[in-house]
Each structure stands twice: as C-alpha cells, then as structure tokens.
Amino acid sequence: MKNKEIVKLIFDKINSSKEEIKHLYDSSKSNIGYFYIDNILPEELALECFNVFPAKSDMRCLKTIREYKYVSAQMDKHNPLLEKVLYAFQDESIVNLIGEICEIDSIYADDSLYAGGLSLMDQDNFLNPHLDNSHDAERKRWRVLNLLYYVSPNWELKNGGNLEVWPNGPKQKPIVIESKFNRLVVMATNDTSWHSVNKVEVNAQRCCISNYYFSDNPLKENEKFHVTKYRGRPEDTFTNIVLDIDANLRMLIRKIFKKGLRKNPHIYKK
Prior knowledge:
Blueprint: H1 3-16, H2 18-28, E1 34-38, H3 43-51, E2 60-63, E3 67-72, H4 80-88, H5 92-101, E4 107-108, E5 117-121, E6 126-131, E7 142-150, E8 163-165, E9 175-177, E10 183-188, E11 195-197, E12 206-215, E13 229-230, H6 237-256
Antiparallel strand pairs: 1-10, 2-3, 3-5, 3-6, 4-12, 5-12, 6-11, 6-13, 7-10, 7-12, 8-9, 8-11
C-alpha cells in the first residue's frame, strides 16, 4: 500500500468522527485533554503491522526504576510498513486536522522521532507515572501532543500494559485507557499531564507506534521548561523519594547545560 493511501485511510477515519472526538477532548482538557478512536486502519493492515513488528532483540531495552520496556526509532532497520504507518501520522493533512480538533495553532510533527517511534512491552514491563520533557531536542518548540497507535490483536484490559492518565496528579487514582488493538490515543502533554502504563500481566507483547507533535507555544500559560519527571505509584513511598531526587538532579544539570550532557540517543539517524 502506498503512503498516500495510508494517509487517506487515517484522515478519513479521524475526520468522520471529528465531532465526537472533539467533544471527548474538550470535556477532558481542563485536566489532561485526550481522545481515542478505534479501527483507525483496516483490520488486515493493522494486523500486518503487528506481524512485522520487530522482536525485542532488535530493540533497545530500557530497564530502570522509572520504566521497563523496549524501544526503537531507527525505522530503516525494520519492516517498511511500520515506517509508512508511523509517518502517515505526520502527514500535514492529519497533523492539521488533529491540531484543529485540539484547537492548537502552529502544530508540527517531528520527523526525527525524538522519543517517538516503536515501543514494545512484554510480561512485567511497565512505565511509571511521569511528565514528558516539555520541549524538543533543541529546546525550540513545546511538546503538546502524544499519539499512541496500538497494534496488538486481542488485547484485553486484564492484560495490563494499558495507558493511564492521572488528571488529579500521581497521588490520586488514574483513568485507564485500554491499549486496544487498532486504537489511536491522542493526549495532551504539559506540566500536569501525568501518565503511565501499568504492568503487563500476561505472556504477550503490547506493541505501539508513537509520535509527538510540537508547537511554538505551550498548551498552558506560564508553563516552564522541565525534564521528564517520574514518580512511583501512590503506594510506592521509597520509589517516590528516589525518583524525586533523580528528577531534581537532572533538572539542575539542564539549568547548567541547556541541552544536557549528551544527546538523547532515541532519534531516527537517517
């Protein structure tokens, strides 16, 4: 299938549900704006994305107190279909449509895939509650939207590995959004948009194709630069202490070294 055909399928699906998903985003944006839409691509195409998803051994493992997952942004190492689908979400028509739904001006995709690309979570993998880094790699644009497209067939809520948003902060209870097959989730990212992925409870792989959109302006007034900040779950007191120290140290470093001590390796080196 050609790139333009995939773009048209995604655009038509989003556009046909435009009013419904706009209402969902508007009703949630006072805390963490989000919407989701199912069956974003024909089932056979979404299933093929899963079938050609890279093995864990072909991805980079991130295993710390913050997270445990597998990622890749080097798309030319993987099946070309995945790159086609990922970059379809970066087509100007789709970027502008989603920007219109979320009422965001000057919205841009990121072809370098800074912190985007592919992610895989297997049994016992997790992602602790966190705030995404506020900017792009050059600290020129604000990160404003996170797009997550799930391609694992027959995924169920009980499997774990589901997106959680914490509209009242990471000390309260989250809203769980199932990582349902062929579902696109779009969520706002700002200085209060805490989100996480709960632990995968089964011997199965939750696969996701992700993008970030950026803007010349932050979503909230008076928002300031911040690094990615993690917390433990409400009951994880020790983890919270460790991750608070970790975030404060990394923020101090970024105040001294604006672009950090090293470049984030998670970009597409074309």
